[in-house]
Design brief:
Chain lengths: ~350, ~290
């Protein structure tokens, strides 16, 4: 596609003053260290647990969705793979954990791992096919994978409950100790703990050499090919990992809400997670922590009034973000600081 | 034996009618993609708009079918022109993700707006009386409206191809798809060309949506529900190609109709599996350039 040299060039970050060599080395060496503000989301999550005890079920959903958005960020923000089918993995994880729980295996941790593994497997197989293409074709194929799974779940109603969704899940207490209570306390803490572990893992990936090479692939595929990086393999690896994490998120929601439905697999879900990520900021690892709570709390408030028109405002917000506030809230704050 | 034959004829016939609708809607998307490199997921919104214009003009105001079709074309072309100048233009050559987000945002807005204006229910489409009967071809009869769809689609396709081959405008379009920089250098006003092509493509989508209103039901989530079909046609056909999507639309239309007729339980699977297999074999589509 001859798009280079068209009307406007790609947005590049504003140039900073070049660092002296020693400074640059130090900056690289310190890059992966923890900073004080990285504790903020966790402090906020714990504060929310204490302050809003009646909103814990919503809180648990927000935490699990943050994980879903985080996994999308790995694919989208770091590897630069634009996908319209990320819900495929979310739904796979949810259905796996849900079906296990309905059929007599309600142990949550193994259910979670099973959901993760199944989703990662689907991610690997579909990624192997899908990642050969780029651009619109890739987009279409990710959508087709999700649509296929949606149709499968719809048709196999003996297994999935079809349109009515999967009902009657029995999830056992965590470690045989902590029962899922009606106030959602256990669910909230469970989601928080899983999110924390997955966040550590994702952070580790992002700051590893592997993560750096993913960024390289996103920024300039040709050059990465030229220096001999195994581009396709790396993209497939991160796609599989992200699919697994999305599966974890789906399984978390299935276990804490006790329900899985077809909406876990549809295009609104795939699109919705992109929106949440965009509002927060893509490729920044923390975009999910800002975008998801904002989106879901707003949705919880507004959609009670008029569920359909919620989509209008969210659509308008997307258009405005793209036109005026690229990089989302984190991008805006970065620009303000400069 | 004759039953099997009749079934095949029927599948071919209905598939072809579906293919015409798919092609009319998707060809604009293919050109937008090939020429401007723009991933316009909201293309289906224009088809939906065309369908709504037609159905409401006909059922609420009693406008004749032919006039309503023209109105559907003009309304979507004009609407898309405004959007192109206001929004799309800013993102030409920009980030793919931004384009996806912008157009997803437009889809979401269209869902809400259509619900607000026309309500959540499907809009019924009543073909005019002179098209609603059966058409007798001697050896068997065919539904009149579907026959009209095929003829009308074929006429439009031939007109479109001739226009692209024989007119100055078509020449410019082909030049810009082939090599944008070169087209700019020889003095083609590509910005205006984009706008016109975009409007024409969207207008055709509106026309396709209007003509196909009884095949692809007009309801608020139209653009979301049918997105995958339009993308498949474009990707299988090959981006930027004019004829490719036609072949793809015929393939998809007939295969989809056939599988849904023969294996209603698994209908939709085959079309998706077929698409994946085709793209595994030719990642750039049937007529895509390397």
């Amino acid at each position: 596609m001859a798009t280079e040299g068209l009307v406007r060039p790609r947005l590049k970050p504003a140039p900073r003053a070049p660092l002296a060599p020693q400074q640059a080395i130090d900056a690289f060496a310190r890059r992966h260290r923890y900073r004080w503000w990285e504790a903020l989301p966790w402090a906020a999550a714990i504060a929310a647990y204490v302050l809003f005890p009646s909103y814990l079920p919503l809180g648990a959903q927000i935490l699990a969705t943050i994980l879903f958005a985080l996994s999308a960020d790995l694919v989208l923000g770091y590897a630069g793979i634009v996908t319209l089918g990320h819900a495929a993995f979310f739904g796979t994880g949810a259905y796996t954990a849900g079906i296990l729980a309905v059929h007599g295996w309600g142990e949550p941790i193994t259910g979670l791992l099973a959901g993760t593994a199944t989703a990662a497997l689907i991610g690997f197989v579909s990624g192997w096919i899908v990642l050969r293409t780029t651009g619109l074709t890739l987009l279409m194929q990710t959508l087709v994978v999700a649509t296929l799974l949606y149709e499968a779940a719809n048709k196999a109603s003996w297994l999935t409950g079809g349109d009515d969704g999967l009902q009657g899940m029995e999830v056992w207490p965590i470690f045989g100790q902590f029962r899922f209570d009606m106030f959602g306390r256990t669910g909230y803490l469970y989601c928080l703990a899983v999110l924390f572990l997955c966040w550590l893992f994702a952070r580790h990936i992002v700051y590893s050499p592997f993560g750096r090479s993913l960024t390289g692939i996103r920024e300039n595929v040709r050059r990465m090919h030229a220096i001999g990086a195994p581009v396709r393999r790396r993209r497939l690896i991160i796609y599989t990992i992200a699919a697994g994490l999305a599966g974890t998120a789906g399984a978390l929601i299935a276990q804490t809400t006790g329900f899985v439905g077809l909406s876990f697999l549809n295009l609104e879900r795939s699109g919705g997670v992109l929106i949440m990520l965009i509002i927060g900021g893509v490729g920044r690892l923390y975009g999910a922590f800002i975008g998801v709570p904002l989106y879901m709390i707003a949705q919880n408030r507004f959609s009670e009034i008029e569920p359909v028109y919620w989509y209008f405002w969210i659509g308008l917000l997307m258009v405005l973000v793209v036109v005026f506030a690229r990089g989302g809230i984190l991008g805006l704050s970065e620009r303000l600081r400069r | 034996m004759s039953n099997t034959f009749a079934a095949f004829v029927s599948i071919g016939f209905h598939g072809l009618a579906f293919a015409m609708v798919l092609y009319l809607i998707s060809v604009g998307l293919s050109v937008t993609m090939g020429m401007m490199g723009f991933v316009n997921l909201a293309h289906g919104v224009f088809a939906m708009l065309g369908g709504y214009v037609l159905t409401s003009l006909m059922s609420r105001m009693g406008v004749p079918f032919g006039l309503a079709l023209i109105a559907a074309f003009l309304a979507t072309a004009l609407g898309s022109l405004i959007l192109e100048r206001l929004l799309y233009r800013r993102l030409y050559g920009g980030d793919e993700l931004d384009q996806v987000l912008l157009t997803m945002g437009l889809i979401f807005m269209s869902v809400a707006a259509a619900t607000y204006v026309w309500g959540p229910l499907q809009q019924p489409m009543h073909p005019p009386r002179w098209l609603s009967g059966q058409l007798d071809f001697g050896f068997r009869s065919f539904p009149g409206y579907r026959s009209f769809l095929i003829l009308c689609g074929a006429g439009l396709v031939i007109g479109l191809w001739l226009g692209l081959e024989r007119t100055r405008f078509g020449m410019k379009v082909r030049a810009a798809v082939d090599n944008l920089r070169m087209a700019q250098s020889v003095g083609i006003n590509t910005s205006r060309l984009f706008a016109l092509t975009f409007a024409l493509g969207s207008g055709l989508a509106g026309l396709g949506g209007a003509l196909g209103a009884d095949l692809l039901a007009i309801n608020p989530s139209y653009a979301l529900d049918n997105l995958v079909y339009f993308l498949i046609v474009v990707a299988v056909g090959g981006l930027g190609s004019i004829r490719g999507p036609f072949i793809a639309a015929v393939l998809i239309g007939i295969a989809d109709t056939g599988f849904k007729y023969l294996l209603p339980e698994l209908g939709a699977f085959f079309i998706y599996a077929l698409t994946m297999a085709l793209l595994l074999w030719r990642p750039r589509g049937l007529f895509g350039r390397a």
